[in-house]
Amino acid sequence: MSAPDVNIERRLRALMGPDAFVESNDDGIPTVAPRTTEACALVVETANHEGWQVRIAGSGTWNQETGPADLILSSSGLSEVEDVRAADLVATVQAGVDRDTLRTALADRGAWWPVDPPGFRRTVGSVVATATAGPLRSGFGSIRDHILGLTVVTADGRVVHSGGRVVKNVAGFDLTKLATGSFGAFGFITRVHLRLRAIPRADATLVATGERSTLVQHAQAILEAGLTPAALEVMSPAAGGSESWTLGVRLIGPDPSVNADRHALKAASALSWSEPAATDAAEFWRNALQHPMRHPIVLRVGAVITGLEHAIDLLAHHLDDECVSASVAVGAVRWSGTADPSRVQLLRHTAAQVEMPVTIERGPWSLQSELGHFGAYREGVSRLMGSLRDTFDPNRTFVVALGAET
Amino acid sequence: MAQMTIPKQTMQAVAAVVGDRWVRQSPSELDTYASDGLPTRRSRPGAVVLPGSREEVVELVRVLSHHQVPFVARGAGTGLSGGALADRNAVVVVLTRLNRILDIQPQNRLAVVEPGVVNVRLSEATAPHGLHYAPDPSSQTACTLGGNVAENAGGPHCLKYGVTSNHVLELEVVLSNGDVVTLGSRGGEPWGSDLVGLFVGSEGMFGIATRITVRLTPIPQAVETLLADFPTVRAAGEAVSAIIASGIVPGALEMMDQGCVAAVEASIYAAGYPTDAAAVLLAEVDGRDAESVAGEAREVEGILRHHGARSVRVATEAAERARLWQGRKKAFGALGRVSPNLVVQDAVVPRSVLPDILETIGDIGEKYGVTVTNVFHAGDGNLHPNINFDRSDEDEVERVEAASEAIMKACIDAGGSITGEHGVGIDKLRYMSLLFDSDTLSAMRAIRRVFDPQEIANPGKVVPIHACREWAAAASTRREGDPRSGDRALHVGA
Fold it and tell me: How far is C-alpha B254 from the chain's CA centre?
């Protein structure tokens, strides 16, 4: 890395002209916010050529504290909702569009992107690059299931387009899947084609409280009854905003279907359910999603459905279980809190023995650089990951700590 | 007698792995594997080998890698893009003997299978648990799950439930050098980047999947199937868009045009479709609750009638629904009776342009003097234009090829893609440069070389190499020990 250098800022201004906004942040690191994919490509190509290291940034609300860099490449200039095709339920947006803007643009057309990531003012690019799905992953799938294609600028400044605007597409290898959830290691995402749904007609939330293991068992009973709610989330007291553990269920669909599922849910689980009004329900889920932002570290643990309790036990044993939210139907647990890297590493070791990946979704650079977002790979995967990274970014122009690539 | 293009020494080593009984080398035997579901291409492979276990697959691939002999993995051979074809320098590795369902975990909604398991067998095995494997290609009574993974197969019910990639959680993969790697995890969370998502649909060019963990889905307890007939194809296409926009997600939404209906009704698969209709739509609504499903079915019926359906038939009984579906699922078989050969094309367009593109396809058929019939996944915009022809008529074959190319170009121009579920294989190779620029194709090839540096796994498919530039050929120059590389984390394996 070069010393903080005003020349980089000056050169970026000269390079970009009116195609980008350039300024230096409080640390004196130049931030460049190009307005087009081509301008992004020019920045990255120049950085790669000059040996400048590039930190990727979205709105800055999720990973505020990231690694050292010679310049910050921000998606804030890529803020256009390019196209919403309501009849096709497809939209194309630039990566810097935040979810509030997107929600409004889609709602005007009767459409909806069924993705509820933790945090607030998240950009689409950030959500895609980190694959941070929320409770709706239980019913609608993970982030990858809602993306039809994207454009990335790779480390040598090439522009790669994958997928497209159609809802089914197997032409060529699926580069979209590689870019989704790779934290920008394989390129800077500039544009995303989204798969949408029509705005649901009915959206009901049911909440029950109790002991953790009781709620997990009831959630599993709900699944065994053949129900797959849009959200089926077991939350710790802090995460659920309650004095005890909470099971939050969201039913989405046409009215008769939601009504039927409500009855079936109550038949399958003899919990004492309450059903908050729509505004209270929205507040409940908003709080649950914003809670992780109070902590510097957010982890994601993957398990099978029957392994969820064990996953939470592992978290409680190695870290704590103060802020835990588990999407039961997909076996995904989100933890947030404060922890020494050595404890997180020990958790990873232990979890790996029982086939549970632990991903650092968010954390200070000291943690990211020491452990990597993914860290513990399975045998053989590290070679593939390292080779992929060497292929797309041999100079490590993008400052991303993925893990133990060899 | 063997063609002797694969060294004798290699074949001896191969036979030592699987036994002589499972090696095919005579021309008549090899001819069985000279084509798949794509009728326009034939290629006799150098040899065919049928390993009986994953250990044999691993050892076999090691032998072939050591001798630098290309190989092509093959399931049931029902693929429609020529993806399972091999030339005389390559060995076809047939995986149909690896046909065990290894584990079913109802509580975790997952199953673990070998690649040779036939698609429909898995759903049959999981049905007692109230679960099924949702992707249902039309060939599901024959095609294998390994082939489904390679092609990222779809099917009529993928409109609601997603394609193969939405249902694969974990893959045990033999890379082209014989290394065995497990991608993904049984819970679905990746170890690292989403290499499962990358592998699914890689058309056998990244390696061979020997163990597949899939997600299972509850079987809908209530199902209603509606058959609507329309006086124009345009009206049927507009009804499709209206249903999708209504917020109802049908289990399936399929369209057949008049030519297809006529072929079905003239066959043993006759389903009672109205033969005077310009198009029929088959819409299925499913869910847990009979009453709510009935409500959605009434709503769909209203939309269909509002958009000009002459009649709407609602089937609620299983036998009647099965009859309606039989006509759709066997449509390709019925069309196959019409002429000696049939090309089943595959392309995708935005749903809203369906009416226009169907007219364009009709015009293309007229221009080239070929008959194009359409049976397709309308809800996904996934077209299957079919062209009947006689392979012995060279002029007709040329016109079929030209019409196919024109259809592909029209779909690309309409904002679509050249394949929605059949894959690129060799059939669509020539269109890839129309869809992707050189940098994107180069990136695809570069990724392939990460998995298969020798490029011996199913060579010559998917990516037109002539269109690629070299990608990051220079050795890594990253700074050793640079903390920003983030490569210091401990490798713990699992």
Answer: 17
A77: tokens are 């200039």
Per DSSP, the three-state class of A206 is: strand
ipTM, 2 decimals? 0.96
Nearest partner of B409 among B389, B432, B388, judged by Cα: B432
Across A336-363, average pLDDT? 96
- The Cβ of residue B483 has, within 10 Å, a number of other Cβ atoms equal to 15
- The DSSP secondary-structure symbol of B224 reads E
- Of all residues in chain B, what percent carry a pLDDT higher than 70? 95
Please name every residue paired with A149 in a beta bridge, in sequence order, or none if there are none. A163, A193
Specify the DSSP class assigned to residue B479: P
Q: What are phi and psi of A19, to 5 degrees?
A: -80, -5
* pTM of the full structure: 0.95
| Residue B170 distance to chain A (closest CA, Å) | 11
Residue in the block written with tokens 């150098």: B46
Contact B424 A170 (CB under 8 A): yes
Residue B343: name the closest of B8, B35, B27, B7 by CA: B35
Q: Mean pLDDT over all residues of chain B?
A: 92
Residues of A in contact with B182 (CB under 8 A): 378-381
Query: Could you tell me the two tokens for B144?
Result: 């294998």
The C-alpha atoms of residue B79 and residue B33 are separated, in whole angstroms, by: 12
Most A CBs within 10 A among B131, B176, B194, B298, hence the mutation to make, goes to B194
Measured distance CA(B5)–CA(A239) in Å, rounded: 65
Query: What backbone torsions phi and psi does residue A61 show, to the nearest 5 degrees?
Result: -90, -20
B chain contacts of residue A254, beta-carbon cutoff 8 Å = 247-248, 292, 295-296, 299
Calpha distance B441→A236 (Å, rounded): 47
Tell me which amino acid residue B1 is: M
How far apart (Å, rounded) are the C-alpha atoms in residues A40 and A336? 33
Alpha-carbon distance of A104 to B185, in angstroms, equals 36
